[in-house]
Amino acid sequence: MTPGKASPTSHTYFSQRLRLHYLDWGNHEAPPLLLVHGNRDHCHNWDWVAQELCSEYHIIAPDFRGHGDSAWVTGSSYSHSEYVYDLAQLIHQQDLAPLHVIAHSLGGGVALRYAGIYPEHIKKLVVIEGTGGPGWMYQNRPVHERMKEWIESTRKVSGRLAKRYSSLEDAYERMHDANSHLRDDQARHLTIHGSNQNEDGTYSWKFDNYTHVMSPYDMNQEQTRELWARIDAPILLVSGTESWHGQGKSEDPANFFPNARHELIEKAGHWVHHDRLDEFLKLTREFFAE
Length: 290
Prior knowledge:
This protein starts with 8 loop residues before the first strand and ends with a helix. By secondary structure, the protein is of the alpha/beta class. It has a single domain, classed as Rossmann fold.
């Protein structure tokens, strides 16, 4: 992060008896703005965005269950519905509604579902590559195939040990490989906040391996779009031209919302807010000011 700028405080809240973590960037008299991260990411993913916007908004950035400094679940899979509940609980407990939201990837899909359930709670919504989802979600496969795949993938993850890196430098290299657009300082910052040191001195990512396993059933595409159609608030959909997310898609996702537009940012991958921060902030500020 930029030295000399604002920094957040850490807090916890409870959702289904889980202790979940969030960052609060202060400025409580300003309008609330929720920043929602993507899958196997963490709330410090937003630090650069938050530093630039915290003088204008009261920013809260949560860690989803199983991510960052939030608790892992036991005896349950990580489903979109549970993530929606966590988001709903944070907004309810902190009395944030109505509010602005910026969300990325998985967080975007979760935020859009929340907005469809509670459209009156949303002022404006910026979603970075959050209108997709796993292909199986939209396939009408026999029930035995879905259940068998879920059982076998869960069994496989149960025996999977967290990847261990001999040093933070090795973990940093993996972070940079995952997104070659990242500056060195960004990759190191995300690595430091996204990893824990193990007892033997090695390092592992904070996210729970079980986040790789999704519930065998979820809302289908028709049901998801039914929720999207309920969102009255203006929506800005943002994608990167170099991202895998948009490859092969012919439909403009803005068409499925009553009041949305879609912006493509050049020379950006899936993490648009990292790859082209200044352009993303400019778009967001202009959108919020409209």
